[in-house]
Amino acid sequence: MDRGAHEAALDNDWLVAGYMPRDQRDELGRIPPDVARFLTPHDKTGYAPRTEANVRASHAALIVVCDADDPRATPGTAMTIDLAVEHQLRRMIVDPTDDAVQIARWIWSSLLMVQLPLPLDTCDPVPAKLLVAGPRESKWQGARIETAALLRRVALALAEISSGGVEDVPRQQRKEQDLTRPQG
Fold first, then answer.
1. What is the DSSP letter of 116?
2. Beta bridge mates, 132
3. By mean pLDDT, which of 9-13, 109-113, 121-125, 157-161 is the weakest?
4. Is the distance from CB of 50 to CB of 92 less than 8 angstroms?
5. Residue 174: per-residue pLDDT
6. What is the CATH code for 2-177?
7. How deeply is 90 buried, as exposed, middle or buried, from its count of CB atoms within 10 A (0-12, 13-18, 19+)?
């Protein structure tokens, strides 16, 4: 899934950032150099520390799963969801069949239209950081391809929103998980 998100990000000139395992590998092998150059090797081995670091560095999480009605089907994705709740990230759980315009509206209203606090020593805007996460390829065959295709459709919808081509952003009607603060 990560590779699909990275492919779509590079295709759309989105900033790629975050952490990767210390050995710079994922389950498919060495992370491609065109992606690895943007990622920081985590000082610990394994996926769990990398996942937690990526959650901590993000402002919101888009969780892409095979079936949004069963988002906790894999242990790693369940951990990501739990960490997002724990760190009070805005989050949305989607699958490849979800409407790209709705996802783009959520990204627009949750990240791009939100004023993020600035560090005291700078007047440069803080870039919003969206974590895109979900099951690995061995847990969801086709994750890379389906995630990349979905994010490419979302990119087109975001471009239309930013140009004023989509009506004002309405309240979301499905699969959002408490956009401001987790309950309980």
1. P
2. 62
3. 121-125
4. no
5. 36
6. 3.40.50.450
7. buried
